[in-house]
Amino acid sequence: MDSADTKLMKEAVTEGRKSVAYLTSEYGRAGDTFIRREVNELRRIGIRVDTYSIRRSKDQAISEDISQAQDSTTYILEQPSWVLFAAFLAAAVVMPLRVVSAFRTAMRTRSAGMRSLVWHLFYIVEASFLARSLQSKGITHIHNHIAENSATVAMLACEIGGLTYSMTVHGPHEFYVASQIAFPEKLARAKFVACISHFCKSQCMAWSSPADWDHFHLVRCALDDAYFASSTPVPRSHIRFLSVGRLCPEKGFVLMVRAVAELKKMGVSVSLTIVGDGPSRRDIEEEINRHQLSKSVQLVGWKSNDEVRSMLCKSAVFVLPSFAEGLPVVIMEAFASGCAVIATRIAGIPELVFDGKNGWIVEPGDVRSLTKAMQEASTTSSSELLAMGMAGRRKVQESHNITHEVAVLASLLRQ
């Protein structure tokens, strides 16, 4: 770490106390560990963070940290209807011009159709409540994760309450529906935009005016020291494959099952465990049954952070065959645990996974490429796989350290 980094971290800790609201669509989801780490680190260095969410996640509170995050979060749609509409009426009476301006913004930035019209009217009501709540606490800045619906509420709340907002952009969905979610306007209005990878930053630049590029900053998702300390890599006695993520089409889990089926045809026996749940579970189960792979592939549902960490430490290879991604934190966790990684050549992944050095990069949507990588991994010695994992661990420690990344974010929040 160079002297500039050290100076930045000292400034982040020693500057005056700052209060900020964190807003997401569903705070406290099982898969959003990285946001909770970020919030905890901001609080550790002296920034007050109040967490808000549009709605409560349907994910079960499978660990104490998720339960604590949910218990301390204000869920806007759990407020009584009269409270939400009272906040809107109060804003309309006290700040009529701001409410009219927010209404115009909502109508201008919505997509076509009656459904979008109705939703954006609700967003104005939600934004009125959020603005009123923050004003009562003396909070003047909102930081949003995921630049979709919750970012719309943040943008409107700032217009109503005279606040400012910033965003962390992850991708990839924002880039696919940019024109429908007013992504360019959100980028332009934000005080700053934190981008999780160079690829992410390039996509924000593609959807914005060059005049806005200077307030786009690289702030990577990261792991804390406690994660590294509790994930000491050791040689594996067996080569087990592990995958973790929400079971949705873009994660490519069905393709991974097909790769295991191809390996079976080749006489290569592998053990694969998939952690997670979601809308694609039935499709994955059907694929497992179709190829008679119930002894080779196990679906185990969501697990707590500690359970996932333990499973990573017992697995030699982590596989994520995604079709679309940002830069998955679970890859960082896999490297920290000493796993070699097989992942696809998309988005920010090649900024972390290097073919032949800390894992394998495969072509997205290509079962042959994935099968070949899994076959090579299955015939690689445990010591070689661990050496790959250790190379990945060093890369994560170098580029995805929570102390440094949150110091960058804190410096931006305090400006």
UniProtKB/TrEMBL annotation:
<dbReference type="InterPro" id="IPR050194">
    <property type="entry name" value="Glycosyltransferase_grp1"/>
</dbReference>
<keyword id="KW-0472">Membrane</keyword>
<keyword id="KW-0328">Glycosyltransferase</keyword>
<dbReference type="InterPro" id="IPR001296">
    <property type="entry name" value="Glyco_trans_1"/>
</dbReference>
<feature type="transmembrane region" description="Helical">
    <location>
        <begin position="82"/>
        <end position="100"/>
    </location>
</feature>
<feature type="domain" description="Glycosyl transferase family 1">
    <location>
        <begin position="239"/>
        <end position="381"/>
    </location>
</feature>
<dbReference type="GO" id="GO:0016757">
    <property type="term" value="F:glycosyltransferase activity"/>
</dbReference>
<keyword id="KW-1133">Transmembrane helix</keyword>
<keyword id="KW-0812">Transmembrane</keyword>
<keyword id="KW-0808">Transferase</keyword>
<protein>
    <submittedName>
        <fullName>Alpha-D-kanosaminyltransferase</fullName>
        <ecNumber>2.4.1.301</ecNumber>
    </submittedName>
</protein>
<dbReference type="Pfam" id="PF00534">
    <property type="entry name" value="Glycos_transf_1"/>
</dbReference>
